[in-house]
Amino acid sequence: MYPLQNSQDLQPLIDDIGKRPIVMLGEATHGTHEYYTWRTAISKRLIKDKQFRFIAVEGDWPDCYLINRYVKGYENDIQAVLRQFDRWPAWMWANWEIVALAEWLREYNASLPDAEKVGFYGLDVYSLWESMKIMMDYLKEEDPQAAQYVKQAITCFEPFNEDEQKYARQSLGRHCRDEVLALLRQIRFRVQHLDSDLEAGFNTEQNALIAVNAERYYRSMISFDNQSWNIRDLHMMETLNRLLGFYGKKGIVWAHNTHVGDARATNMHKEGMINIGQLARDQYGAENVYLAGFAGYKGKVIAGDEWGAPMQEMIVPPAMEGSIEEILHSEFGRNGLLLFEDNKYRDKIGHRAIGVVYNPERERRGNYVPSFMAHRYDALLYFDDTTAVHPLRQEPHNEKVPETYPFGI
C-alpha cells in the first residue's frame, strides 16, 4: 500500500489511471471531509494534467447547474448559490469543501474560451418539480409553444402538491407519464432552435429527461423490489453519456461507493441491482473506466439519524473485525493507496458503507457490503482517522473557509 500524505503521493494513482477517459471517485459516506478533499486533489490533477472536462456528482441537476454557471463565470457568489440547496441532505454539496473546489474551478476556467471551460453537473433524478419549473421559466420567453407542453405536465402533477410519496401512492390510478414523454419529444425537436448561451439547449433537454425518468422513479417507489434503485442509476448513466457526448472528452464522476464500485462484485448483484460503475464498464469497457473506492477506519461524519432529520456530527466507531477497513488498519495503521492490479485482497470481505441516515450503534447490522474488492474497484484510498465535512450553514473556522487542502495542492 502506498502512503497518502500529500498530493505528490497520488502519482501512482494518476499513473495507474493512464489514458482512461472515465474516472469514478467514490466515498464511503456522504459527510466525510477527507473524501471531498482527496477527490478534489485527484480531480485537479486529472483536469490540469490529463485535460478532463467535467465533474459529474451524485447531486440534483438544477442545483449543480448553478455551480456550473458559477465556475464558468456566469454567477458571482458561490456561497449564495450553495445556500439555495434546500433538498435534504443539503450538506452533501452545500459545504465549505465545495466552496473551495468551485473557486478553484472558476479560477482555472477564467483564462479559457467558453467552449473549453470545465463544467460541474449533477447526475441524480430527484428534481422533478424543480426541473419543470426551470423549463417553464426559460421557455415562456424563448419558445412559448414548447412552454405549453411544460404547462400541461405541471398541470397533471398539481394535485400531488410536489409530494413524491403521494404521487407514488396514487400513480396506479392516475399518472403523468404521457405528459412528460410528450414534453421530452417536443423539447428534443425544438432544442436545436434555442439560440441562447452554449448550454441552454443542453440544460433544457436534460431537465425534460429528468421529468421523464423522475416520474418513472417515483412511480416505482410503490414496488417491493430494487426497480427504483436501478432506474436511478440508469438515469445517472444516461446523464453521464450525454455529458460525454456534449464535451466529446473525458469526465470525472463523484458518487457513493455503492454507485461507483462494480455491483457485480457485491451482494447487490444477487438482489438484481446495477450501478453506474458496472454500466460504464459494460458500455465503454473496463480498459476505459477507472473505479476508485474510498474507505475509513474510524472518525466523524455528518449525517441524520432518520430521513429529513437535522444533520449532526456523529462518531464513526472503529470498523468491524474482519472488514477491509479493520484489516488495513491492523496491517498499516495509516492513510494509504491500494492498487488492485496485483494484490491479495481478492476474497469476499465486508466493506463499510454509511449513507445520509446513520446510527453508529446499529452499523454492524447493515453498514457492511460483502465485496470482492479487487473486482469492485481498480483502487482504494484508505484513511485511518477521518473528520466530518463542514456544512455551509456552519460558520467557517476563524471566519474563513476551512483548510480544505492541508497538503498543499
UniProtKB/TrEMBL annotation:
<dbReference type="GO" id="GO:0046677">
    <property type="term" value="P:response to antibiotic"/>
</dbReference>
<dbReference type="InterPro" id="IPR052036">
    <property type="entry name" value="Hydrolase/PRTase-associated"/>
</dbReference>
<protein>
    <submittedName>
        <fullName>Erythromycin esterase family protein</fullName>
    </submittedName>
</protein>
<dbReference type="InterPro" id="IPR014622">
    <property type="entry name" value="UCP036794_erythomycin"/>
</dbReference>
<dbReference type="InterPro" id="IPR007815">
    <property type="entry name" value="Emycin_Estase"/>
</dbReference>
<dbReference type="Pfam" id="PF05139">
    <property type="entry name" value="Erythro_esteras"/>
</dbReference>
